């Protein structure tokens, strides 16, 4: 692991993401076993005719049509006959193969295969996917949308992946609705609310909290019906950055505080009981980037998804000079699939944030024009 020379305590980004992942529980299922064979009977897997393969290409008389969901015993395929059959319909007694529509010559009630059928052609055989009693989902398997299909098929109560409720609260005495020159409007709160919604969470935007340990502690003690609290501000080294101490005072487990990233160094993550607190830095570009990375990671875990890889790969159209010792996320525009660096003015620069399509990962030392790097799409 490469350590920065003047910030040996800073956690590399990927390590912080891994810690967050491992600290959170994935929703899991109890054991599910097949209640019957899957499929429960032989079924057509193509639209065509069900027939006896051994009769080869001879013309057959069509007895009728079977649709998915119909009882097939109304027909018996005897020599010289066939039944039109739709995908998913149960095979009629006597038939052992399906010849697809594309491989038939049909005229009135007579149809002739243009190919030599073999037994089992285009038939999904009873039990070929699972046998009654087979283990379909082991105890503790994380739930995901794909697995809901098996729950539904087996007649279990449908558990959907929960929509995670996220509260958003900025911190800072400077945040007011009608700012004087020394004050600001809360831009992080609405931005993080919008991002949480974009990432699929149910978000709730709260009023900014003051830089007061008692007010912070009160808000954290009674967070309301949320699984994640996104705060911004108050996690840095200033005299009014109370959040880390307040969380410790309340007995929270600090997962990490301060990461090796520019912008976004003061990032904090903590568990207060079941509540995940993502303490984002106050500067808007830092807050945005850290929320993009850490909130998507937390949501994926809590929803039972696999760990997301938010990174794309691309080349820079121009060099990015960089002398810092932490990896830098640099704003870029996407031009023809390549990253055109923007002249960003740092972590408070909302104007450039609004112009950016992407943030390119720049290792200490900078990158040359044409260099390939990973980048985050701006959502
Ligand atoms: P902090 O991390 O609290 O020291 O904040 C760092 C910088 O971000 C300061 O300049 C704050 O005024 C600014 N800032 C903090 N929170 C917000 C917010 N919700 N909206 C806009 N700017 C903010
Ligand atoms: Mg502050």
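-> sequence recovered:
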């Amino acid at each position: 692991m490469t350590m920065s020379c003047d910030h040996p305590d800073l956690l590399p980004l990927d390590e912080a993401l891994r810690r967050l992942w491992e600290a959170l529980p994935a929703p899991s299922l109890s054991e599910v076993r097949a209640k019957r064979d899957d499929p429960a009977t032989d079924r057509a897997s193509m639209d065509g005719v069900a027939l006896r393969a051994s009769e080869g290409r001879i013309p057959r008389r069509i007895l009728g049509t079977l649709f998915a969901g119909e009882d097939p015993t109304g027909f018996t395929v005897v020599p010289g006959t066939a039944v039109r059959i739709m995908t998913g319909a149960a095979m009629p007694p006597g038939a052992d193969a399906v010849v697809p529509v594309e491989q038939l010559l049909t005229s009135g009630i007579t149809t002739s295969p243009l190919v030599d059928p073999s037994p089992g052609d285009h038939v999904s055989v009873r039990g070929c996917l699972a046998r009654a009693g087979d283990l379909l989902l082991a105890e503790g398997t994380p739930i995901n949308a794909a697995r809901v299909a098996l729950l539904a098929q087996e007649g279990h109560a449908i558990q959907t992946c929960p929509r995670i409720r996220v509260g958003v609260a900025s911190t800072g005495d400077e945040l007011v609705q009608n700012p004087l020159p020394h004050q600001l409007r809360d831009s992080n709160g609405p931005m993080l609310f919008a991002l949480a919604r974009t990432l699929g969470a149910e978000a709730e935007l709260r009023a900014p909290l003051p830089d007061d340990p008692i007010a912070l502690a009160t808000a954290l003690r009674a967070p309301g019906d949320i699984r994640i609290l996104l705060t911004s501000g108050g996690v840095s080294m200033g005299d009014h950055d109370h959040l880390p101490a307040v969380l410790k005072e309340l007995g929270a487990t600090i997962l990490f505080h301060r990461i090796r990233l520019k912008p976004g160094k003061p990032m904090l993550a903590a568990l207060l009981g079941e509540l995940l607190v993502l303490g984002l830095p106050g500067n808007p570009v830092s807050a945005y980037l850290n929320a993009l990375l850490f909130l998507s990671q937390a949501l994926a875990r809590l929803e039972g998804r696999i760990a997301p890889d938010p990174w794309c790969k691309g080349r820079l159209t121009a060099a990015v000079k960089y002398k810092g010792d932490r990896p830098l996320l640099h704003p870029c525009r996407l031009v023809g699939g390549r990253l055109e660096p923007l002249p960003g003015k740092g972590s408070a620069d909302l104007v450039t944030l609004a112009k950016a399509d992407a943030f390119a990962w720049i290792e200490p030392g900078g990158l040359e024009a044409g260099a390939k790097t990973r980048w985050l799409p701006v959502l």
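The first strand starts at residue 11 and ends at 12.
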